[in-house]
Amino acid sequence: MVQYLGTMKRFYYILFLSIGILACSKQNELGGGTDTETYTPCGTYKSDQKLYQGSKGGCFYYNSKGNKEYVERSACKC
């Protein structure tokens, strides 16, 4: 009986540890809470870059490295 309880404790420990690891990996897959929104195109900028409008009204495009480059808000046609 005592050995059974020790095995169950070990089982639950591994189970909770696995759930924690899965939850953390899923959050990292989503970006860890950073910029997971999807944006609708709002026009184009130099060299046919698609412009997007952010949640706070900023107008930007993604550069070749995948980073946001902000431009004047008037450039967005949303």
From TrEMBL:
Organism superkingdom: Bacteria
Protein name per Swiss-Prot or TrEMBL: Uncharacterized protein
Organism listed in the record: Pedobacter suwonensis
